[in-house]
Specification:
The protein has 463 residues and is an alpha/beta fold. It has 20 helices and 20 strands. 46% of the residues lie in helices and 15% in strands. It is globular and about 65 Å long.
Length: 463
């Protein structure tokens, strides 16, 4: 009797398809791949897969049509939709048609592993294959990698949340893994089999976020050609994850407060309140209490969200996790490169000494770059980015907020120098979103402008 989970990958992008195949193999599942609907239908006719990774935009057809066929002919097959963030609504619509979940491009290896493992649990009869996937978390918890005492405390708290659906507020710097913590809370919760819907409040237009959250009626505004459910309703009894909650406007904060208090929402253009059952998990890289004090965030909404607070520590405060993280990332990216790699002791020392302002995301990007560019199976110091191996790097104590700001500023300026001022590439090197880099540059510019002219240092890049 076959015990291995089979996964069909349908995507016309060679790079994405190969990466998915490498991840699927690394998890311990059996991958097959197709670049279009014709190839996919041929493979589906040969054998019904347990899981399907499906891009909605294919060169010879609509992925939603293929999704309908899969669910009609093989209802037990779980489909994970791959989509660009701009088409997230299409992915949500696909979930209504039976898709298990969706993941947005570009996705992280860890996020894909978590989704694959959770979807595979719907096939408990293939326990040996699912156990192989679980072995990837032997150093961590539900896709979160870390053995430090502070991370173990977070794992313990997540387990204790397993039988409740309380609102949770996750705070931590960019790149620390707040969404992974939110996904773990959902996976351990009473409605783990229901949708987990992430919403990045930082990139949603202020004029449409209310419609995205609560829905709208036809004709409510220009472009509203039909009624549309909000994501709070689409989530059902699942989880709505409000990432970067601090970035929403005060007017929307007021409406969100009322929705959370009364567990009802009013679609745009409607006079009728609609009940919803979704759990709310919010996250932010800002200090919300400080935001409340300066009037940028409603105090009553803060207390509504802060029922269960979780603070994810930055990587510089849990450096004992760096070797474990590096080992996992090297293993993953070596599979994609089809060449086993190891790390020299000197390179590990350099990685451990660096303070990682971009946190785990920056470390992951660093290892991916080193594995891809290394000409030797042993990654050495010279294979690491310049900002990490710079001999003039200053080792300063981390006790004060001023020191942290200086470290962050140094890292940002170093990344901009390494990329000749290209902000998109610099953000990737730092492991942060481009919008976050713009925000930090503006804050840095503001700090410089507040100093007396004789005290100002080197000029900043224009923002």
């Amino acid at each position: 009797m076959k015990t291995q989970i089979s996964v069909l990958i349908v995507d016309d992008d060679d790079e994405v398809r190969n990466l998915c195949a490498a991840i699927v193999s690394n998890v311990g599942f059996l991958p097959r791949a197709a670049s279009n609907t014709v190839e996919a239908r041929t493979l589906l006719g040969q054998a019904k897969p347990d899981l399907v990774l499906l891009d909605l935009r294919l060169p010879d057809g609509d992925g939603t049509d293929l999704l309908k066929e899969i669910k009609e002919n093989s209802p037990q097959t779980e489909v994970i939709v791959i989509t660009a963030y701009g088409t997230i609504r299409s992915a949500v619509d696909a979930m209504k048609m039976g898709a298990y979940h969706y993941i947005t491009k570009p996705f992280s290896t860890r996020d894909m592993i978590v989704l694959l493992r959770n979807a595979a649990r719907r096939h408990p009869e293939k326990s040996s294959s699912i156990q192989a996937a679980d072995d990837l978390d032997s150093e961590g918890f539900h896709g979160i990698i870390g053995v430090s005492s502070c991370m173990k405390k977070i794992y313990s708290l997540i387990r204790r949340l397993g039988n409740v659906d309380s609102t949770v507020l996750i705070q931590g710097e960019s790149g620390t893994g707040k969404e992974l913590v939110a996904r773990a809370i959902h996976a351990c919760g009473p409605n783990a089999d229901k949708p987990f819907i992430p919403i990045d409040c930082n990139i949603l237009n202020e004029n449409i976020i209310e419609s995205e959250l609560f829905g709208h009626l036809k004709g409510a505004f220009t472009g509203a050609t039909r009624d549309r459910d909000g994501l709070f309703k689409v989530a059902g009894k699942g989880t709505v994850f409000l990432d970067e909650i601090s970035e929403i406007a005060l007017e929307i904060q007021t409406k969100l407060l009322r929705a959370i208090q009364e567990r009802t929402m009013k679609p745009v253009g409607s006079t009728r309140q609609i009940e919803f059952d979704a759990r709310i998990i919010a996250a932010t890289h800002r200090d919300l209490e400080a935001e409340v004090k300066r009037g940028a965030f409603r105090e009553d909404l803060f207390y509504r969200l802060n029922v269960i607070p979780i603070t994810v520590p930055p990587l510089r405060y849990r450096k004992e996790d760096i070797p474990v993280l590096v080992s996992q990332f090297i293993q993953t990216f070596s599979v994609a490169k089809k060449q086993p790699c190891t790390l020299s002791g000197a390179a590990l020392s350099a990685l451990t000494e660096y303070d990682w302002p971009g946190n785990v995301r920056e470390l992951e990007n660093c290892i991916e770059q080193a594995v891809a560019l290394s000409l030797s199976p042993v990654i050495d110091v010279d294979d690491l980015p310049l900002r990490i191996r710079r001999k003039e790097r200053v080792h300063t104590p981390l006790a004060g907020a001023k020191c942290l700001r200086e470290l962050e500023r140094e890292a940002i300026l170093a990344a901009l120098r390494d990329t000749n001022g290209n902000r998109r590439q610099a953000a990737r090197l730092l492991g942060i979103a481009e919008s976050t880099l713009y925000l930090k540059l503006k804050e840095m510019k503001s700090e410089i402008c507040d100093l007396p002219s004789r005290s100002r240092g080197k000029s900043l890049p224009r923002v």
